Amino acid sequence: MSAANDPIPFLDLAAQNAPLRDEIRAAIDRVVDTNRFIMGPEVTSFEEEVADALGVAHAVGVSSGTDALVVSLMALGVSTGDEVITTPFTFFATAGSIARVGAKPVFVDIDPATMNIDPEGVLSALTDRTRAIMPVHIFGQAADMAAIRGIAKGRDIAVIEDAAQAISAHHPDGPVGGLGDLGCFSFFPSKNLGAFGDGGLVTSNDSGLAERVRVLRTHGAKPKYYHHLVGGNFRLDALQAAVLRVKLPHLGAWIKGRQDNAARYDRAFEEAGLPSEILTTPVRAFDGHIYNQYVIRTSKRDALKAHLDERSIGNVIYYPRALHLQECFADLGQGLGSLPEAERACDEVLALPIFPELGEARLDRIVGEVVEFLAP
Questions:
Q1: pLDDT of 1 higher than 70
Q2: Taking the C-alpha atoms of 135, 139, 142 and 147 in order, what is their torsion angle to the nearest 10 degrees?
Q3: Which residues, including other chains, have CB under 8 Å from residue 72's CB and lie 6 or more apart?
Q4: Are 117 and 151 within 8 A, CB to CB?
Q5: In angstroms, rounded to a whole number, what is the distance separating the alpha carbons of residues 91 and 97?
Q6: How do residues 350-375 score in pLDDT, each as one tens digit?
Q7: By the 8 A CB rule, do 327 and 359 touch?
Q8: Does the structure show a pLDDT above 70 at 2?
Q9: What is the percent of the chain with per-residue pLDDT over 90, rounded to a whole number?
Q10: Burial of residue 165, with CB atoms counted within 10 A of its CB: 0-12 exposed, 13-18 middle, 19 or more buried
Q11: Which residues does 230 contact at the CB level (< 8 Å), separation at least 6?
């Protein structure tokens, strides 16, 4: 097969990790040699380094992005009878974490341009049982945090940022993860900063909340065997922290590569002249979008996906079904048609390869296939 017809992966982790192989192996060996596998200096050092990189006062390593959300809700005391307002257009963990602590997820619709949560929907969903708002910085673009914080202010409502896809993203008011009471990040291998397995992070500029998360991640014990709270085992493995310490200094360059690729996509699709009713490219509401995914929208999504699959061009649907329509949330009573923008997005979105090592030739080939298929 000629290079022009080689498969294009959706994500190429080997291309990212191979140049760092020796340094990563040395970091892993360092942990093995010390036999400090649980917590210890690697976790502490990573927390300090990533807090500095993200511009937040406190960073607490945890076991996954999902557990970051769960422990954040626990730290705020959210539980049975409480309501948490969030978006239905996100990965399941966002709403699943709310249900796991016994609270009720309240879904509101999205802004059709950015696909982030619509602040007007948040305002209309408030009740006397609302304890928190959980916006998601979808695909690496900050939600409208100024409006969301304005809604929460003065109402004794907390804001938990689901920043699982948005490490190092920025809003005009500052870096994500420091705009709410707590910020939650994921180091799943496919993220812009990925571990060699599961890992997560909770950030905060509130020292009291950060300390509560630290205690809760170790079964609520401080010191060991003295339990002030009922927590869980939410610790970040030292091996994962060591790997992340090697990769963290490269995050800025990787994000720049994604942003450059996004700009090339935008220019190429604009030059193709497809009407907006045929193809919509990502809307950038603010500077600081880190493009964890590059997501286009088209009414011919399913046919386009099949076309790209046939040509071995990687693509992924984020997300095929909105959370309010998932079977496990049927009892919430938000059926088909209740959140039309989220439902329409689920019918139209398709993510294209955006990883920094993609290269212009492969990107041009992807654009050519998309335009050729969609052209009137």
A1: no
A2: -40
A3: 160, 182, 184, 202, 213
A4: no
A5: 11
A6: 999 999 999 999 999 999 999 999 99
A7: no
A8: no
A9: 98
A10: buried
A11: 219, 220
Instruction: State the Cα–Cα distance between residues 161 and 178, nearest whole angstrom.
Output: 8
pLDDT tens digit sequence for 313-332: 999 999 999 999 999 999 99
Half-sphere exposure of residue 4: CA atoms within 13 angstroms, side-chain side:
2
CB 89 within 8 A of CB 120: no
Both tokens assigned to 207: 């020292």
334 touches 324 (CB < 8 A): yes
- Angle in degrees, 0-180, between the axes of helices 21-34 and 41-54, rounded to the nearest 10: 140
Looking from the CA of 281 toward its CB, the CA atoms found within 13 Å total: 20
CA nearest to 167, candidates 59, 82, 313: 59
Lookup: tokens for 219: 């079964």
First to last CA, the chain: 30
Q: Rg of the chain's alpha carbons, rounded to an integer?
A: 21
Residue 117 has phi, psi (to 5 degrees) of -60, 140
Buried b (16+ CB within 10 A) or exposed e, 230-267: ebbebbbbbbbbbbbbbbbeebeebbebbbbbbeebee
The values of phi and psi at residue 134, to 5°, are -125, 85
- Domains of the chain plus CATH, in order, are 14-250 (3.40.640.10), 251-374 (3.90.1150.10)
Cα 312–Cα 313–Cα 314 angle in degrees, nearest 5: 110
Tokens describing residue 373: 């298929």
What is the model's pTM? 0.96
Give me 70's structure tokens. Answer: 């769960």
